[in-house]
Design brief:
alpha+beta, six-stranded mixed sheet, five-stranded mixed sheet, 5 helices, 18 strands, 14% helix, globular
């Protein structure tokens, strides 16, 4: 039986060296660096994993110029490590099993309509409109895990806006490791190939205005560049 309208284009992310990674779902974790939890008014000792999602077609490619999003006057950046899964499962119990699901890694940015998020927090409501809007998940090229000699254990995440460093932190400052994030998520969802996971942001998040140029780097292998249209 044929579709009554043309099917949407499959969202995808470029892979370093060629090819495309098809995006199924985008999962994100909040409050995963001690200093960022404090920065947002929380206590990391009392925090538990906070998950939210973005639509698959929120991905925006490296080098893009993005429109300033509608419905906000306070757009924030959050530089992050992103995991791309090649397989999935439910109730994953070991770090080794979780790591085996990872196809590769990328630098990403969780764009946030902070004014809408603050209103949602005050009303004890969901974050959907604050997090899941158009172009809200810029992501750089995915680097396959087997090409990251030495891994990312000692890598530093840095975010610059117009050349000024706004975020700088080692990935080792994560409260929950990438493998632990996968394990937690698999208790709530059946993870599958094509899923992306944004792993949280360190302190230093801030506002983006029209015309800003943003860069996220993680170690020497992962990078993302994009701009907000004037």
């Amino acid at each position: 039986m044929s579709f009554v309208i043309d099917p949407p284009v499959q969202p995808s992310v470029s892979i370093k060296g060629g090819g495309k990674f098809p995006v199924r779902r985008i999962f994100c974790i909040g409050r995963n660096y001690d200093d960022h939890v404090r920065e947002m008014g929380g206590d990391p000792k009392n925090s538990t994993p906070v998950f939210f999602t973005k639509p698959a077609d929120a991905v925006a490619p490296d080098g893009a110029t993005l429109p300033y999003p509608q419905g906000t006057s306070n757009l924030h950046f959050e530089g992050e490590l992103v995991l791309a899964l090649k397989s999935g499962g439910r109730d994953i119990k070991s770090a080794d099993a979780a790591k085996a699901l990872i196809y590769g890694y990328a630098a990403g940015c969780d764009l946030t309509r902070r004014d809408l998020q603050n209103k949602a927090k005050d009303a004890q409501g969901p974050w959907d409109t604050a997090k899941g809007f158009d172009h809200s998940a810029p992501i750089g090229e995915i680097v396959p895990a087997d090409e990251l000699l030495g891994g990312l254990a000692s890598a530093q995440l840095a975010t610059t806006v117009n050349g000024d460093v706004r975020q700088h932190a080692p990935l080792s400052m994560m409260i929950w490791s990438p493998e632990e994030i996968i394990m937690f998520l698999s208790e709530l969802f059946e993870l599958k190939a094509g899923d992306l996971i944004f792993t949280g942001t360190p302190e230093g998040v801030g506002e983006l205005t029209r015309g800003d140029q943003l860069n996220v780097t993680i170690g020497v292998h992962l990078s993302l560049d994009f701009a907000i249209a004037s």
